Amino acid sequence: MISEKDLIKELQTKATREKAFTTLVGTYQERLYWHIRRIVLVHDDADDVLQNTFIKVYRHIGNFKGESKLFSWMYRIATNEALTFLAQRSKKMGFSDTEHQERMMASLQADVYFEGDAIQLKLQQAIATLPEKQKLVFNMKYYDELKYGEISEILETSVGALKASYHLAVKKLEAFLKET
Amino acid sequence: MKQKSTQQPFNTPEGYFENFGERLKGKLAQPKSVIPKNSGFTVPQGYFEELLGQLDERRRPKAKVIPLHPYKKHIWIAASVAVLVLLAVGLGRELQPSITFEDLAHEDIEAYLENNDLGLSSYEIAEFLPLEDVPAHLNLSEEQMLEYLTNHVDHINELNLENDD
Is B79 inside any structural domain? Predict the structure, then answer.
């Protein structure tokens, strides 16, 4: 398997760029998709955001200086794209935060690519009530199984603050699921 | 001196140390979370296999469209320039004070009338003269009239007198 350093070099070289991009998409598409999907919830939206993320990576790879890992850089782009997508749609529709959450839940229930039972739906409702940072940290730790160090690099937050956010999120979610 | 007993007065339940390790492991094991690990999301069949093709489609440079009317894109520029020129000229005119009839010196008017053939007869000019300024009765003596006529009238016809004498 090609090393990250070599992959970056190939992506930044015109002659090898196309082949390297194919490798890049194949390597990261699923991880980025699930990260995005947990933020935007609906498959069609996740597909749009994922494609925008890869297009952005392709266009800006020349400016990537290697100050962080390629994986962290792509995760950061994906997170920004997903959050911007939601904010733009909410603004366009003129919804408040509560209305927006309700609409997202309704869209999720209508999504043919959500096969969750009552508990899983309730979990998504509970996650939707969390502050943005706690939501991101919870999904990245609990589902994506990223290490605190990796999340810290992606979200540019200290490990201590991330641990506190995660534990707080877990407590809130468990309480929500137990009481209902 | 009384000797200290090596025998401890404490006892343990039977088999306590035999299953201590097992019980400790049970205590250390994380309690099962109520949060489900499976979030219930799925993707369409073959989605990840087709993603690269869709990305290629989006990255492919679009064919250059040759406009049917290439001048059209310049129309707006031309129109904008024309509007700016008109505004500048209009504003320039607004800023200049307009000349009125009163601004003309009497000498200039007289010089113009003398040097230009207006094609107007004395009667036509007389029609434009304000009558208010003309005294109703001219107190001219006969001598004054004769002197004026002698000096200013070359031909008797110019007097336009209605007599057949």
Answer: no
Q: Is the CB of A113 less than 8 angstroms away from the CB of B43?
A: yes
Does a structural domain hold residue B119? Answer: yes
Closest by CA position to A48, among listed A36, A63, A66, A31:
A36
User: Taking phi first (over 0 means left), then psi (-120 to 50 degrees means alpha), and beta for anything else, what does residue B27 get?
Assistant: alpha
In a domain, B117, yes or no: yes
User: What pLDDT tens digit does each residue of chain B (165 aa) get?
Assistant: 455 556 777 888 888 888 888 888 877 776 677 888 888 899 999 999 999 999 988 887 776 777 677 667 778 888 888 998 888 887 766 666 666 777 777 778 778 877 777 677 777 777 777 766 666 666 778 888 888 877 776 666 666 665 554
Closest Cβ opposite residue B36 in set A22, A58, A123: A123
User: In whole angstroms, what is the distance from residue B86 CA to residue B162 CA?
Assistant: 60
Long-range contacts of residues A118-122, Cβ cutoff 8 Å, at least 24 apart: A119/A177, A119/B36, A120/B36, A120/B38, A120/B39, A120/B40, A121/B40, A122/A176, A122/A177, A122/A180
- Segments forming the whole domain that contains residue B108: 101-128
Cβ atoms of A175 and A123 within 8 Å: the answer is no
Chain A and chain B share a number of CB contacts under 8 A equal to: 70
CB pair distance less than 8 Å for A113 and B34: no
What number of CA atoms fall less than 13 Å from residue B68's CA on the CB side? 0
Nearest CA in chain B to A22: B52
Is residue B114, in this structure, part of any structural domain at all? Answer: yes
Interface contact flag, A30 B48, Cβ < 8 Å? yes
Å from A66 to nearest chain B CA? 24
Count of domains observed in chain B:
1
Shortest Cα distance from B60 to chain A (angstroms)?
11
- Picking from A33, A57, A139 by the largest number of B CB atoms within 10 A of its own CB, the best residue to mutate is A33
